[in-house]
Amino acid sequence: MDKDNVMKINGKTCEFEPGETILQVATRNNIHIPTLCYLKGAHPTGACRMCVVEVKGAPGPIAACSSPAAKNMEVLTDTPRIIDARKMVVELLLISGNHNCAVRGKYPQDWTDFQQEVETYDRADDICVAYGTCKLQALAYKYMVSERRLDRIPTRYPLEYDDPLVGRDFSRCILCGRCVQACVDVQVNNALSHGYRGNIAKIVVRGDMTLPDSDCVYCGECIQACPVGSLFEKRNRFSSRMWDITQVRTTCYYCGIGCQINLFIKENEIVKVEGVEEAKPNSGRLCFKGRFGFDFIHSGKRLTKPLIKKKGKLSEASWDEALTLIAAKINEIKDKYGPEALGCMVSTKNTNEDLFQAKKFFNNVLSSEQVFHFEPAGYIGIEYEDIKNASTIVIAGADLNRDNPVAASYVKQAVLKGARLIVVDPDQNELSKFAHVRLKSLSGLEKEIRDGTILIHDPDFDVSSVNGKDNLKIYSITRENNTNGAYLMGITPKSDIDLKAYKFIYSMGQNIKDVKSVDFLVVQDVFPGKLQEKADVVLPAAVWVEYDGTYISSDYRVNRVRKAVDPPVEAKPTWLIFKELAGKMGQDWESAREKEIWEQEIIKNISHLEGINYNILAENGVKIKEIEKISFEKTVSTPKGFERPNLHKILAEQCRDLQDIVQKRFKEGK
Amino acid sequence: MKKNLRQLLVCAGTGCVTCNSFEIKEQLEQEIFNRGLQDEVKVVATGCQGFCDRGPIVIVQPDGIFYRQVTRKEVPRLITEHLLNGKPIKELIFEPPETEVPVPNLMDIGFFKHQRLIILRNRGRLDPENIDEYIGFDGYLALEKALTKMKPENIITEIKNAGLRGRGGAGFPTGIKWELTRKSSGDIKYIVCNGDEGDPGAFMDRSVLEADPHAIIEGMLIGGRAIGAQKGFMYVRSEYPLALKRLRIALKQAEEYGLVGEDILGTGFNFSIEVIPGAGAFVCGEETALLASIEGRVGRPRPRPPYPAEKGLWDKPTCINNVETWANIPRIISRGAEWFSAIGTETSKGTKIFSLVGKINNTGLVEVPMGISLRDIIFEIGGGLPKGKKFKAVQTGGPSGGCIPEKLLDLPIDYDSLAQAGSIMGSGGMIVMDEDTCMVDLARYFLNFTVQESCGKCTPCRVGTRHMVELLDKICAGLGTAADLLHLEFLAKTVKSTSLCGLGQTAPNPVLTTIKNFRDEYEAHIVDKRCPALVCKALITYRVIKEKCTGCQRCVSVCPTGAITGPRAEAHNLDINKCIKCRACYEICRFDAIAGDAIRIESEPGQQEEV
C-alpha cells in the first residue's frame, strides 16, 4: 500500500482521515482501547489516562483519545507496560473512593469495615447505584484490579442529597470531567465546572453551590455522561438495576425535535429515560422535560373510564355506552345542522395513526372537512446540520431554551465555534445571553444578513417580511411533537375560528373557552380538567408510551413510537377510539393495529411517505422524501382566544418531584 | 568632585527591598542633599544584584566597591568616609566565609567574578523604572534593527542559528517554535511571555522582570515581528508585585515612546502588550494551563498536540516563551547569532540564570555560561557550604528536578547532561544540600509541594503523587517495608510516564533520583529504622551527653514540655517520654562549639516494629 494516511495498530494496517485520533481509528477497526473520560462529541481532555497506548518511537505511553493519528505510526494497545499503567490507573481510582463493588481488603475484616463506612456515607444500605453499568467497575474486573496495595483515601466531600432530582456522590467521583464537558461543551449550560485543585479537586456547581441554588436547568446530560455512580437520579437510585429493567426505544413527545430516547421499564413503570447516543437528531442529549417529565403517566389522577354527563354531573360509564351516545348525537346534529357543524380539534401531540383515523372518521364517515388544530405552521422543516455550519444564526420568536432546548444546545455550540447569533424577540429570551445582536423586531435584520445565514423561527412568529431574501435560509421549528405529521395527514392549522358554527365538537384536550353554543361536546384527555367538566362525554385516552405509532419531527424525520407500558384500566389510544366509533356508525374499518393503519393506509396514500414502513423505521428515523416540496405559503398563527399548551405548567401540576424546579426555573414559561 | 562623577547603586530587587533598601536609598539621598553633593553623586535604585543573601547592597561606582548588609546607621559614614575622604568602610565590605579575607572590589568577589552576564547585563547598573536609562545602554536598538534591516524570516534564521533553547525548562529550540508559529495558518497570532515562575526558591524571572523589564518587552516585539503577531500577553504571577509594577511602568513608557502600539518606529508594525497577573496556581506555569488562565478558564493543562504554535490562545497560533528566553532575544539580534552560539556547549548555547539557594555560603542569583560544571557554581561562585559541612547533593530544576550526588558534580550544565542525570534544567532552581539533609525527607518535601499544586485533572498526578507521599510518610516514620519501596518506585515510574502534563511527568524526579543515588538512605529507614541525617523525627531520640553538659540550664528554659530537668551545674536529665523532638535544646546548647554537642541526637535502631 502506498497510501499516505496509513498506520498500524497491533500490526493491522489501518487507514485514517487527517485529524482523526488514534482512538477513533482503532474503534473504527474494532480494536478496543479502554476509556473513562472520553466523551464523544466533546474535545478530548486526556484526563483519566486509561486509554494510553504505546507508539513506536515515542518516549512513553500516549493517550489515544487525544493524539492524532499520523502517517506510518505504529501503535500497540496491549503491551505489558501498557497493561501495568492501566492497572495502576484503575487501582488509583479504586482506592480514592467508595467503590464498594470492586475494592477488596487484604483481610476479611477489612471488607466489612469498608462496607459499613460506605453505607454510612450513602445513607443507604445498598451497593453502588451504578453496579453493573459502571465503566470503572468493568475495567477493574477486566484488569483484575482488586488488591489494595495502598491505603484508601477517605472521601472529603459529603453526599449531596438535598436536590429534588439529582444526587451527587463525591465518594464515587473519579473526576473524569465528563459531566463538565456534557454541561459546558455539549449542552452549553455552563452550570458545572472544576473546582479546587490537586487531591481536593471537586466538580462544582458555579462557585461550589448546591444544584438548586445554581444555574442548572436540569437537562440531566451530566447524569447520562457519568461513567460511575457519582451522579444519579434520586427517584430511581436503587430501583433501575440493569437486571430489573427492560429498555424500550421510542421518541420523546415533548417538542418538535423528536429526540430518540430509551425508556427504562420496571414492572410496567418508566423509571428512567436516557437519550440514545447514536441516533439523530439528538445524539444522546435530552432536556429537562424529556428526561424527567414522565411521572404523570403513572399518576393516580388519570382518567381511567369514560364519563357521561347525567343530570349535570359526570359519572362513569362503559365504552359501549359512551360511544353509542356519541354516535346518536352525531347523527342527530348532522341531520339538523349538516355535516359542517361537526368539528374535530385534534392535538398535534397524537401519533400520525391517531390523526389519520380522526381525519378519516370525519371525512369519510361524517362527510365533514372540519378537522383542524391550532398549532401554528411555518415554512420548511429545520436542518440541524445547517446550524453547525452557519456563519450567522437568527432566532426569531422561538424561545428555544424553553421550548426546544436540544436545538438550543446546537445553536449555542455553533456560537462557541464562532457563529454570530442574532435573537429577534419582543419578549424575554434566554438564548439572548449568547446573542451578539438583539432585535425587538425583524426590521433591523436585513443589514445583519450575510453569506451562510440561517433563520429559525417559531411558526407563530411571522417572518414573511424577510422570506425570499438572498443569503437567508428560513427554517421552522415546531413546539409540538407532531405538527408536521398532522400536516401530512391532511390536517391543517386554523388561524381563525367561529365556534358558533359548530354544534358538535370532538376535542382532543384542546382548550375551548366558550362552549355555550356547542350542543354536544366530547373531550378526550388524560386528566380531568375544566374543559372536561363542561363536556357531555369524556373519554380516557392512552398516552404515547402506551401504544405504537409514528411522529414526524421538525426536521421532517419519521420516528417510531413504541408501546412500553400498559395504559391504565380502560384508557384507549385515539386511533382505536375512532375505529370503534366508526363501528358504531356502521363502518367496519379493516386495520386493527397501528402498523396496519400506517402500512396499509397512510404510506400508500401519502406520496412523501411512500415505502417508509415500520421495518425501515425499526432502528432510526427516516427523513421524508421531497422535503423541499413541503412548505407553507405563509405562516399560520394560533387564533386569538386559544392558548397554546403550557408544558411546564402541566409538568408542575402532574409531576410532584418537578414542581419546585419548574416554579423556580421556568416561571417565565408560557 | 565633578558632575555625577559617582553613582551609588542601591539594589532594589525584592530581596533587598524587604531589607529596607528603599529606606537606605532615601537616607543616602537625604545625606547627600544635606552635604550639597546632589550634583556630584547620584543614587540609583537598580534591579537585583543577585547577591540576595547579603542585602541591602550598595555599590559605589566607578570605584567598584561593593557594600553588603548596609544599615541606616552606616549611611552617614558611607558618605563622609568613602565619598568625601575616599576611604571605603571596612565594616561593610564583604568577607567570603571560606577565607574571611575582606574583598572590597565587586569584580574580585568570587560570586560575581565567575558569572557571565547577558540576560542580566543591565542588572545593578540602570534604573528599571526609567526607559531612558535602558535606551542609554543601547536599548531598543535591536528592535530598530529587526524592524528596519531584517525580514521576519531573517530574524527567525538568526534565532535558529544562535541555538537558543527555551529557558522555561524543556529546552525546545526557540527559533523552531517561532518558525512553526509563523507557518501556522491564520491572520491573528499571539505572543505570550510566561512569567509564572513558581518553583520554591527560584526567582530568576522575577529578577529579570524587576531589573530589566524593557529587555523582555523588546524581545517580545521582535518575536511579534518575526511571527506575524499583533498582540502579546505577559502572564506574571501576582505574588511578584514589584515585578508587575515595574513591568507596567515600563510598558507605559514604551507606549509613550511609540515603541509599543501602532506603527512602531514608523514601520507600519503594530504590536500591543497586555499584562495579566496570575491567580496563584503553580500549574499555570505549564503552557496550556497558562493559556487557559489567560482565556479566563480554570488553569488546567490540556493534551498536546495541538501545540500552542498551532492552536493556542482562543485557538489561534500562539508563541509562548518564558521571561528569560525573551530577554535573550535583543542581545542575539544586536550582536548576532555567531557571537551567541560561541557561548556554551554543542547543544546548549548562551548563558543560564540559576538561583543558588540552600546550604550554600553565597545565596543568590547567578548567570553562567552553559557548560560550566556544578562544582564551579557551588564552590567557586557559591563559596561552598557553610560551617564546613560536607556536600551531599544538589537539586536542580525545582520540585520537579532531580537530586544530583557528589560523584556527578563535574557534570557540565546543559539540557542534555542534566536530563541524563535524571534531573532537568527546569527554570533554573538550584538547591544545595549538606550532610544534614535526609534524602527521603527531601523527596517527601518536594513531592508534597507537587501534591498541593497538582491541578487534579489526570489520575496519575492527582492520586498517584498523593500515594507516593503516603508511602514516603510511612518510610520516614520507620513503618516502611521493602515492598513499599518497590511499590514507590513503580508508582513513580508510572506517574512519570503516564501523566498528562509536565508537572506530573516530572513530579516523581526527586523520588526516582534519590532512590537511584541514595538508596542506602532509604534502606537505612526501612531496614535499620534509622535516619542517617538525623532528620526524621520518628527515628531519632535526644539524649544529654553527661560528660559534656555543664548544667547551664539554657536547654531547660527552652524545652516546651519540661522534658529536661536538673539542677544548675549538674548534668541534666532528658525524659524521652516527654520529649517531642522539637530540636530546641539542640539548637540552644552553647557547648556544641566548645565541647562538641552536649545534647546529641542519635538514631535509635530497632525502636519501631515492622508492620
Give the tally of structural domains of chain A: 4
CATH superfamily of the largest domain in chain B: NADH-ubiquinone oxidoreductase 51kDa subunit
Poorly predicted spans of chain B: 593-597, 606-611
Q: What is the structural class of chain A?
A: alpha/beta
Q: Runs of chain A with pLDDT <50, length 5+?
A: none
Task: Count the beta strands of chain B.
Answer: 18
Helix content of chain B: 25-40%
CATH topology of the largest domain in chain A: Rossmann fold
Helical fraction of chain A equals 25-40%
Proportion of strand residues of chain B: 15-25%
Distance between the termini of chain B: 78 Å
- The DSSP helix count of chain A reads 18
Query: Which CATH class of the largest domain in chain B applies here?
Result: Alpha Beta
Structural class designation of chain B: alpha/beta
Radius of gyration of chain B: 27 Å
Count of individual helical segments of chain B: 25
Number of domains of chain B: 5
The main β sheet of chain A shows up as: 8 strands, mixed
Give the overall silhouette of chain B. globular
Q: Identify the biggest protein-protein contact and residues per side.
A: A-B, 38 and 34 residues
Question: Can you tell me about this structure?
Answer:
The complex is a heterodimer of chains A (670) and B (611). Chain A has four domains: 6-78, Ubiquitin-like (UB roll), CATH 3.10.20; 105-298, Alpha-Beta Plaits (2-Layer Sandwich); 307-377 and 483-653, Rossmann fold (3-Layer(aba) Sandwich); 380-477, Dimethylsulfoxide Reductase, domain 2 (3-Layer(aba) Sandwich). In chain A, 49% of the residues are buried. By secondary structure, chain A is of the alpha/beta class. In chain A, α9 packs parallel to α15 and α9 (352-365) packs across α16 (594-605). In chain A, a hairpin with a 2-residue loop joins β1 and β2. The longest helix of chain A has 19 residues, at 319-337. Chain A is built from 18 helices and 28 strands. Chain B is an alpha/beta fold and 611 residues long. Chain B has five domains: 6-113, Glutaredoxin; 131-341, 3-Layer(aba) Sandwich (Rossmann fold), CATH 3.40.50; 351-434, Roll (Ubiquitin-like (UB roll)), CATH 3.10.20.600; 439-528, NADH-ubiquinone oxidoreductase 51kDa subunit, iron-sulphur binding domain (de novo design (two linked rop proteins), Up-down Bundle), CATH 1.20.1440; 537-598, Alpha-Beta Plaits, CATH 3.30.70. Helices cover 38% and strands 15% of the residues of chain B. Chain B has 25 helices and 18 strands. In chain B, α6 crosses α13 (323-335) and α7 packs antiparallel against α8 (174-183). The longest helix of chain B has 18 residues, at 459-476. Chain B is globular. Mean pLDDT of chain B is 90; it is low at 593-597 and 606-611. Classes of the chains: A alpha/beta (670), B alpha/beta (611). Chain A binds chain B through residues 43-50, 52, 60-61, 63, 66-68, 84-85, 88-89, 92-93, 95-96, 149-151, 153, 174-175, 177, 193-194, 196-201, and chain B through 281, 283, 298, 300, 302-303, 305, 451-460, 462-464, 466-467, 470-471, 487, 490-491, 494, 496-500, 505.
